[in-house]
Amino acid sequence: MQKQSLRRFLSRWLPLVAWMAFISFASSAEFSAANTSRIIGPLVLWFFPNTSPATLEVIHFIVRKVAHLSEYALMGILAARAFRTSPNTLFQQRWFLISLCLIVVYALLDEYHQSFVPSRTASILDSFIDTIGGLVALFVIWLRSETKHSSNSFVSAYNQSDPKNLSNE
Hints:
By secondary structure, the protein is mainly α. The chain has one domain (2-153). Helices cover 82% and strands 0% of the residues.
């Protein structure tokens, strides 16, 4: 039993912690705009050889912002998974708020960390984009769970109703 609960604990929290570690690594010099342009630029030029330098710069900017959005959306999914399945009742009940707070705090700390990396620039706009990514993921999860609960309650109410009343409808 002890081994099984440790395995369950690790399966719940390790993906979230590992992803947060990756986000911190991505905030280092290795993922600076200068380094990512060495990958994104040639790739875009390979697909679209006539791309102008100005267009290439815009594409690079958009790809980097979409990366912010998606990395925190995945963090939101992993946080929701960890908190919703936690044995702690408070975490289960307040999973949305706790996950969102974790995302906001981590996004702000991430940008603060970048302010100390010479090849990176800290931006409150990036923290906002990060938060939006996490919030959208959390909202989709919440919406799906609410839809699931409401459809289940409708089905159970329908199944428990008097069959004589259903024939009149």
